[in-house]
Specification:
Blueprint: H1 2-28, H2 39-46, H3 48-81, H4 87-99, H5 102-112, H6 125-153, H7 157-166, H8 171-182, H9 184-200, H10 203-207, H11 213-223, H12 226-255
Length: 260
């Protein structure tokens, strides 16, 4: 009886998640009357705004990933090595972006960094780009920190640090050549999650008036019929591609020997 309920729950879950996707994909292929075609996808890929916004979001995602790694890896390493008592408080701080809405964060940024403030980042396009990257890093912080912290938990940080110091390595060398390679798979998992978050984010990019992929999806959805469905399928494919890469690197982590 338990197996029947388990299979029933599994079947319900599969149908719940796949039927909307199948319906959306089917609708996106019906742009040409009476037959299936990829016209909607061709229009999306041929739209200069798609290329502009997607390129901008990919660049922002890469900068956000680099900034997140530089911020999170040394912090998580230092907390695990020297400040384990502060770990619950650090975890609490990293969870705050999950309970504070993005619109509140971005309005705080605009209030703090407007043109009349001591640091007028919103007064230039470059400054707004930096502000948006900080916002993306804040939104991705819970996922990046937990991924890195989980990776550091699987290695003996204290022993590796003592061994490296006994050979004369400094803190920068230990982080770059010992800790980061051993936690690389966990860092990559956080990086892929960050990429997926940045690609689909709407609120911050729209309120900071930046040409990102999220606002483009919203704008297309308000004015077209078939192209938004095609764009949603493309965004869904990007997200699942990132999740697939996480699974791939996780399997690589299980089979790879630790580096000393």
């Amino acid at each position: 009886m338990r197996k029947i309920w388990a299979w029933g729950a599994l079947l319900f879950g599969i149908l719940y998640f796949t039927l909307p996707l199948v319906g959306m994909t089917n609708f996106s292929l019906k742009m040409r009357r009476g037959e299936y075609s990829f016209d909607a996808y061709a229009k999306v890929f041929g739209d200069p705004r798609f290329q502009e916004t997607f390129t901008y979001s990919v660049a922002q995602a890469l900068f956000t990933i680099v900034f997140g790694i530089l911020l999170v890896v040394p912090t998580a390493y230092w907390v695990r090595l020297k400040l384990p008592r502060l770990r619950p408080y650090i975890e609490f701080v990293t969870l705050l972006p999950l309970v504070i809405p993005a619109i509140v964060i971005v309005f705080g940024y605009i209030r703090l960094y407007n043109t009349s403030s001591w640091l007028p980042l919103t007064g230039s396009a470059f400054g707004t780009d930096i502000l948006l990257m900080f916002g993306y890093a804040t939104l991705a912080l819970p996922y990046m920190y937990r991924a890195v912290d989980t990776g550091l938990r699987t290695i003996d940080v204290a022993t590796l640090t003592e061994a490296a110091q006994s050979l004369g390595a400094g803190w920068a060398t230990i982080l770059a050549r010992i800790i980061l390679p051993n936690a690389l798979v966990a860092v990559l998992s956080g990086a892929f999650l960050t990429f997926a978050i940045v690609i689909g984010e709407f609120t911050m990019a729209a309120l900071l008036n930046k040409p990102a992929f999220g606002p483009y999806m919203q704008l297309l959805g308000a004015n077209r019929a078939y192209e938004p469905a095609a764009l949603a399928v493309i965004a869904f494919g990007i997200t699942w591609g990132c999740l697939g890469l996480i699974q791939l690197v996780s399997r690589f982590q299980k089979s790879a020997p630790p580096k000393a």
